Every structure is written in structure tokens, then in C-alpha cells.
Request: fold
Amino acid sequence: MRLDKFLKVSRIIKRRPVAKQIADQGRILINDKVAKSSSEVAVGDQLEIRFGNRTLVLKVNNLRDSTKKEDAAEMYTTISENYRQNDNFI
Reply:
């Protein structure tokens, strides 16, 4: 399954064009390698997604073409979620 479609179907990112944009900016790693939106995702892969000041690391458990909202969380397991704080100098 394509990376951008996985992110949308799993509801990690709500819209596929946004998932494509983030991936094509080099902000997503699959198994520690920079991924494009067209990169293939497989069960067992580890994804690292950088959203501004937040980094989400997850493991792919399941691939589905479509899901209901309550089933989307079963597609992945969150390994870690880190927040980076900005140092503001006054």
C-alpha cells in the first residue's frame, strides 16, 4: 500500500494530499530511510513522522483499503510520541 494512502486510511493524517505533501518534504521515514508518498508500506514496518514540534513513531500492524473510524487505530501501534520544546528568548 502507498504511504500516503496508509496515512489517510489509518487516520494518522486526515487528508491524502496533506499526507503526500509531508512525505514529499522528507519528514517521514520508513525503517530509518526517507520515504516518498509513493513508497510502499508493509506489515511490520516502522514509520517515523515529524509534525512540526512532534515526532510520532509507530509500527504497521495491518493494511486495509478502507476502515471505519473505530477500526483505524488497529492498523498501527504507537511506539513513541515525542514533543520538542522551543527555547524562546525574550
Q: What stands out?
A: The chain has one domain: 3-83. The chain is about 20% helix and 30% strand.
